[in-house]
Structure of DUF1918 domain-containing protein:
Amino acid sequence: MRARVGDEILVHGRIVGSGEQRGEIIEVRGDDGQPPYLVRFSDGHEGLVVPGSDCEILTQHA
């Protein structure tokens, strides 16, 4: 998985009925776009994310 600053990450809920979380990647800490990513989520909190199979990267770049 590769991402750039400004891309969005979508974390799908793992439990039925739990919502998805969406955030903006504000820092890429791995080499060549690799995780971990510092993410600012839509509720304002920030966290370090190592995406799993329940995540999607929504690229903002062509």
